[in-house]
């Protein structure tokens, strides 16, 4: 076999790879391989260039001499302090100034590299993506995916493409469609200039017990995820977790808080990042008469509370995402969900002054001793409320059952006043957007719905 003249890269990042930046916003990687030349005096060199300009990324990344192992005809070179951004290209050559033809010999290339942030996609079907319908959400350079065939490539739908998969555990057999995460990556890239890598590991229909056991040990899906992460470079910026539908039953709801906390602990331990940000989504609706409403509402409240109680866990509201069937967000709904996840990341990872949260209660109490009017104070209200049959957004219960609501008044500063048809007894509960398929009737000026909640009235 004829020996290839020039530089051959044998070890390096792959085309399209996103290199996880460090805490200083910089990346680093090493290349290595072999060379072939008939010259006795030569240098194996490499440089890192910006693909848009064909200029070195910085002066530090112009042509540099590699470290040579002469006996074995091997070389290595490490690029350090690479600024976040891209896309970049690695070029190699053999410099031979004393040859009859002093031009450099050819070398291999690595194309479309980015230094940015990598996010794991985990959860069940609304994470893996089954959204149907047309929507403007095409691929964009700088948002890449480490796919199930263990190759980095330009991210496009469906992210959970099982073509040539090396991870059959995440195959559901159901046709995949749109997911939220391309929209997530593009929003971050647009706002920050930082490339985004995605590692899809979700499985439709899975319970949280497939990710973490009750003893706090990795489940089969967790092990699969860690295998993907290791092969993608081993470092990530955060986790995109969208799951809970399969646990929205009486036993699952009871165990979900401790299981989720164990999952967070395990993720941070195994990824060696105690402050790892984890972004979650509150359950959307179910268009079905067969679902019992209480577990579904309880799960939404549990998800809301977990995001308030656990440091660096943030929750996106998805209750108003449009749907393609009884339980799955459609393509447009996926884009909305992805952008809400991205807004949370922009606020808490990238320190951008964005409007990241939907309106949420900060105080729920009776106004006066008659216990017949409830005053709710909200935070994160943009502008004013946009009313429309507001009574349908709320439900009040006490020991005697549901208390009919006579009317709802909108106060100033994000307040809402609920007038009851009778005095509340005992320890009443107030629910917002209760049940499997609530009617959304109260939004703020940014058209964001009230965050579903279930809270005692003080």
Structure commentary:
- With 458 residues, this protein is an alpha+beta fold.
- The chain has 3 domains: 6-107, Immunoglobulin-like (Sandwich), CATH 2.60.40; 116-348, Rossmann fold (3-Layer(aba) Sandwich); 360-456, Immunoglobulin-like, CATH 2.60.40.1220.
- The protein is built from 6 helices and 25 strands.
- It has helices spanning 125-128, 181-192, 220-231, 250-270, 293-309, 331-348; strands spanning 6-11, 18-20, 26-36, 43-50, 64-65, 67-69, 74-83, 85-95, 109-123, 143-146, 152-154, 196-200, 238-242, 278-281, 313-316, 360-366, 373-379, 385-386, 394-398, 401-403, 405-410, 415-420, 429-432, 443-444, 453-456.
- The strands form 5 sheets. Strands 2, 4, 5, 8, 9, 10, 11, 12, 13, 14 and 15 form an 11-stranded mixed sheet that branches. Strands 1-3-7-6 form a 4-stranded antiparallel sheet, with no helix packed on it. The protein has a 4-stranded antiparallel sheet with strand order 16-17-22-21, with no helix packed on it.
- A hairpin with a 2-residue loop joins strand 19 and strand 20 (401-403).
- Helix 2 packs across helix 6 (331-348) and helix 4 (250-270) runs parallel beside helix 5.
- The longest helix is centred in the middle third of the chain and has 21 residues, at 250-270.
- The model has no long low-confidence stretch (mean pLDDT 94).
